[in-house]
Design goal:
Shape: globular
Number of strands: 7
Helix content: 40-55%
Order of helices and strands: EHHHHHHHHHHEEEEHHHHEEH
Number of domains: 2
Oligomer: single chain
Number of helices: 15
Strand content: 5-15%
Distance between the termini: 62 Å
């Protein structure tokens, strides 16, 4: 029996995703918002809060904040979620998350108070100021995925939402919660629990100005302007390859190969077969077709047969 897909979104999810995106220095090179965004946000934050925020990453993962957002009643706005979190006893938090962890952190009460402090300030200084069109578009994407769920298998829907990750069924995996997010785009971010995966899949939720190419078209065209990446695509078109196969084939150091794979995945040109901790890469033919479709749309291009004199 396969896993069940759950589809969800609310502003509180994007609250914690935006915090995670800011706190993870290693992510700043790979996300669309980049270091320019990080520097602009730093201008909004007191220096002592920037130090406090460095502790947030482990708390987000180890406390299961995404699980708590999923359990929160109401509209789950940033403020409403924070107020609800304040009202929870340590015993109630344990009850909500214990089925997902091998071992629940012992210092939940301390973590809760620290997270409430961080989320409250983050919302006040930054999250409450973001363009609300982003939230609206993320909610619209959730609605689209709910409609697609009616006619697609869990594996195909997961592959579509994540732009190429083929999450295979495993004996332990029971549920996958798909949540659209903006701040970590074009990357996805998954949190693995005992029998559940929470996947924050990327969504280009910021409106594109008239006359400008979409973010996906830019990723595709920029990604293909590299000889090594084209060679990798040709190699994986022969069949699924493991990471070490790609290192051996290219002769590049692992960090460089990883950099190329991040770019290819973000452009939707690779399909990733994920089964437990094992990962294989293959060409995502739909990504190649998408490039043709987006380029023709952007150029207002259509095939017109020339008149030929007989």
């Amino acid at each position: 029996m396969g896993y069940e897909i759950l589809i969800d979104f609310c502003p509180a999810y994007e609250l914690i995703v935006s915090l995670y995106a800011f706190s993870q220095v290693k992510k700043h090179k790979t996300i669309d918002l980049g270091k320019k965004w990080v520097n602009s946000v730093k201008q909004l934050l007191p220096s002592e809060f920037i130090e406090e925020i460095k502790e947030s990453e482990s708390i987000v993962r180890e406390m299961g904040l995404d699980l708590l957002v999923a359990s929160c009643p109401g509209d789950r706005s940033a403020i409403q979620f924070i107020e609800w979190l304040k009202s929870l006893s340590t015993e109630k938090i344990k009850l909500l998350i214990s089925d997902y962890f091998e071992k629940v952190p012992e210092d939940l009460s301390e973590r809760k108070e620290k997270m409430i402090s961080i989320l409250t300030k983050w919302n006040e200084y930054y999250f409450s100021t973001i363009d609300q069109t982003i939230i609206i578009n993320l909610a619209m994407d959730k609605a689209k995925k709910l409609e697609l769920k009616k006619s697609m298998s869990p594996e195909n829907l997961f592959e579509l939402a994540t732009n190429g990750i083929h999450q295979l069924t495993t004996p332990d995996l029971k549920t996958v919660r798909l949540i659209p997010q903006f701040h970590l785009s074009p990357t996805n971010n998954s949190i693995h629990y005992k029998s559940h995966i929470t996947c924050f899949y990327h969504c280009d939720a910021k409106p594109v100005q008239d006359g400008l190419p979409s973010q996906l078209l830019l990723r595709l065209t920029q990604c293909l302007g590299d000889e090594s990446r084209l060679m990798i695509l040709r190699y994986v078109s022969e069949g699924p390859k493991e990471f070490q196969d790609l290192v051996n084939f290219t002769g590049l150091v692992k960090s460089t190969v990883h950099h190329h794979l991040v770019a290819l995945r973000a452009a939707g040109l690779l399909q990733i077969e994920a089964s437990g901790r094992n990962t294989k890469y293959r060409l995502r033919r739909g990504g190649i077709e998408k490039l043709n479709e987006l380029l023709k749309k952007y150029l207002n291009f259509s095939y017109v047969e020339d008149d030929v004199d007989e």
